[in-house]
Write a structure and sequence with these properties.
single chain; about 425 residues; alpha/beta; five-stranded mixed beta sheet; about 10% strand; globular
């Protein structure tokens, strides 16, 4: 079901003292922002239910498989648990960050990300390297096939140095369109396998919601991450606000949170903003773990890659490493209010659009984190151009007119969301741009 992208996220509002009703569907036409009733999916719970077919297994000796680079792969499901605490402003803005360096905190019963245990008589094998969070996680097959792992073949590369750099805008569950564009750029072959050697591919977030197959998109990206790494390149992804929304809906369901717009729930916000029940039914722990480990920002060849066109990143640290570590730490606390605050902040948009203040906002990010240009998704290009809902006769100015990225803010920002949810184009672009 295609769900239209809205200019602003819709936050369901209920009276705090009112009982929480259960609804099995959305209204045909939703009311305006701030007047939404709460809708809850049947059987929503805060805890993640056991996955079908799962049965506890007796302890077994740890098994590792060396990869061609001498690194050890662990079961990606043995990740630390997730958790988030942040005071929210009545209008959705926070009053500063109380834990700018709190990323060293972990639960007493959580396994540290950068540590791996061994028995008293075990020794680290030669070439041993700890498992870091940015190593590819191999999960389900992308098109619904059986099995929990993907077999990849290492292909030695003769080319020296990194390969070409590509970025992908918001996908929002449109798997067929994504496959078409990746093939057109020569990044995958006719069978959907990585075929770009040592190329580098970054997804800017928002894999699910509004489109028909968000879980299929996540599965594809996870598989391509493993295949690209084996071929000498890489396929990585950033965390978008829809990843935060899906994580919140899965973890917290209809648990009420107090927001600037009143009392809301992740479940209701997810449904009102294009959440697909088929995605929730297919969502597994491995998907949640993978999304929870995504970084929020990265610098690649002078391009500061972000999901959202907002300066909210500055609230989480003065370096890219601090931003990513702080957001991971907050998300891993498993606190509904903190997770909601993260979601609300990275739902903000249009910080770079104003002709006077936009370039200044971009420069503030670049001066703090480095780079010469910001590349982002999140805000559809037709919205940035102010061309949605216009009536200009025969002149085509809607989403169908978008055929490439939008450079703006004195040339300092590149928008990558072509508006696929609005019958626009899903953008896969090589950087740097030729302009």
């Amino acid at each position: 079901m295609r769900t239209e992208t809205l200019r602003d996220f819709r936050v369901p509002v209920t009276e705090p003292a009112a009982p929480y009703a259960v609804s099995t569907g959305l209204p045909h036409e939703a009311p305006v922002y701030g007047e939404y009733p709460a809708y809850y999916e049947d059987g929503a719970r805060a805890a993640v239910p056991p996955q079908p077919g799962y049965a506890p297994q007796p302890p077994a000796p740890p098994v590792t498989q060396p990869d061609p680079h001498g690194e050890q792969h662990r079961d990606p499901r043995n990740d630390p648990r997730q958790d988030p605490r942040h005071e929210e402003h009545p209008h959705g803005r926070t009053q500063g960050h109380p834990h700018p360096h709190a990323h060293t905190h972990t639960h007493a019963d959580a396994e540290p990300v950068h540590s791996m245990t061994k028995g008293p008589e075990e020794e680290e094998p030669e070439g041993y390297t700890p498992t870091y969070r940015d190593l590819p996680v191999i999960g389900r097959t992308p098109l619904g096939g059986p099995g929990d792992t993907v077999q990849v073949q290492y292909v030695p590369q003769d080319a020296a140095g990194p390969g070409p750099l590509y970025v992908v805008g918001d996908v929002h569950g449109y798997l067929d369109e994504l496959v078409t564009e990746l093939r057109a750029q020569g990044l995958i072959d006719a069978e959907g396998r990585w075929s770009a050697g040592n190329a580098r591919l970054w997804f800017l977030g928002d894999f699910t919601d509004r489109g028909p197959d968000g879980i299929g998109v996540i599965d594809l990206v996870m598989r391509l991450s493993a295949e690209a790494a084996a071929a000498g390149g890489y396929c990585k992804a950033l965390m978008g606000n829809h990843e935060l929304l899906l994580i919140g809906a899965k973890r917290f369901g209809d648990t009420p949170v107090v927001s600037g717009a009143g009392t809301a729930t992740f479940q209701a916000a997810w449904l009102l903003n294009g959440g697909q029940r088929t995605d929730m039914e297919r969502l597994q722990d491995v998907h949640i773990q993978w999304m929870s480990r995504l970084d929020a920002a990265v610098l690649e060849e002078g391009h500061l890659l972000l999901h959202s066109d907002t300066t909210a990143y500055l609230d989480y640290g003065d370096s890219i490493e601090d931003v990513n570590d702080t957001i991971h730490e907050l998300l891993n606390r498993g606190d509904v209010d903190i997770t909601w605050d993260l979601f609300r902040k990275f739902t903000k948009r249009f910080a770079f659009r104003d002709e006077e203040t936009g370039p200044q906002a971009v420069r503030e990010l670049l001066d703090t984190y480095g780079g010469s240009r910001v590349v982002h998704g999140h805000s559809p290009i037709p919205y940035l151009l102010g061309e949605v809902g216009t009536e200009d006769g025969d002149e085509s100015r809607g989403p169908e007119a978008v055929d490439g990225p939008h450079v703006y803010a004195d040339g300092l920002a590149i928008a990558m969301d072509g508006g696929v949810t609005m019958a626009g184009k899903l953008l896969v672009v090589r950087l740097p741009l030729s302009d």
